[in-house]
Please model this.
Amino acid sequence: MSKKVAVILSGCGVYDGAEIHESVITLLRLDQRGAEVQCFAPNVPQLHVVDHYSGDEMNETRNVLVESARIARGQIKDVKLLHIAEFDALIMPGGFGVAKNLSDFATNGAGCTVQPDVLAACKAFVDAGKPVGLMCIAPALATKIFGAGVVCTIGSDHDTAATLTQMGAEHHECDVSEIIEDSQRKLVTTPAYMLAQSIAEAASGINKLVDRVLELAHH
Model:
């Protein structure tokens, strides 16, 4: 039986959406491992739009679901339509979209809230005892999803780690090629582009995260 995995995206592009390399590596690894995948995103406006060439903010509005559809080649659903019974695991790639569109971590830090549809979907996996994988900045949402005491990593960025600790997480420093697992909560995290200097470095940890999440889905 192939495992069915939900992947939640946050737009398209590292500065205002999902990190494209992380998303594609995740989808590639899941496919290589024979998993069935469905992508989801919230049907909400992006916080803002960033010109990825100049780095400047652009005077336009975009929709998170519509932009995420670029990565998913159109095969994506509103996260409101995520039915927990249909899936064995959840994975969330990083990118600033996680901190800007799936939550307001970018603007409110430790006092952040998670977009309600995304939070409901994530909590459903926790309540069902199904594994979750969070990469890059996505572990910033871990305490909101799992509660205080959750073990996770964003790598070794001390300011971000301090904010996670302030939120109630137990932060473990981690190399780009490694994963941190909270076995009690079935949460797997890896730094990805919080540390990666190349796409191959990012893949080294992401592949381990995907493999481990799939292993946990068997238990």
